[in-house]
Amino acid sequence: MDIFSFGVHFTDEECCRLHFKEQRDKEGVVCHSCGSIDHYWLKNKWSYQCKSCKARMSLRSGTIMESSKLSFMSWYKTIFLLSTTKKGFSSKEIQRQLGLKRYEPVWAMVHKLRKAMGQRDDRYTLEGMIEMDEGYFTIEASQNDHQTQKAGRGSKTKSNVMVLAESTVLEDIKTGKVERHCRYFKAKVLVNHEADEINNTLKSAIGDEHIIIFSDQSTSYVDIADYVELHITEKSSEKTTKETLKWVHIAISNAKRNFVGTYHKIKKKYLQLYLNEFVYKLNRRYFGDKLFDRLVIASITASGH
Predict the structure, then answer these.
(1) Strand ranges (DSSP E) for 94-157?
(2) What angle do CA 4, 7, 19 make, to 5 degrees?
(3) pTM for this structure?
């Protein structure tokens, strides 16, 4: 959806509300009191009323918009901005685009949308052949730390992130050339470098199908073979980066470049939210103008708390 299409479809607050209601009705409304899925729509109240217990729910209730005082139009414009480009928008830039005076509500709205993206992607697991590696992302730290800390494990200026890519090896029958085709990604901030943290993060990311993991020979990966059908390791090298773990390193490189070019500084406790947005859009890179509606649905089905 381009800006002209957005302007035609969403001319005012009521248009945004009606679209949100249409999408929410498709997903289904569940009563927060008794769990019933049968409701009346009270048009004059812009609310649902449960047919069983008569409890009322606002259009925003149970969605990430529930506690927000920002208009539906503000939310929709923000969803449009986040879904219309591969690169991200800082909350400050979105505040400027919306023409709003206060920064805090915009910051909260954008992070709620990023949380919704992460929750949506958490519904899905990776299958088949999976590339796995870790990337070190620059985070906010003191000037002294940036001057004295070395990059890599243990640095206060870096946060360790596990990145997984569901890739398939394709071989050209005529030429014999082997390439890797990639489908979906996951990226999770690691609390530490211990094997248990690696194992738990991996288990939550993969399905129950027969999994083959490709990785380097990190000592943190010693137990991975216990959770998958096959674990293939290679010594870290330029060839490993460009061939065996190609898609993982493309994702890490693109994410870092995206963050540096868009955001001033990222605090460690919010890094996962920025990764959520990057991976959500990467996994839907072929959705085109459907991405807008998908993000609206994600905002409806995600937990707001």
Answers:
(1) 129-138
(2) 125
(3) 0.90
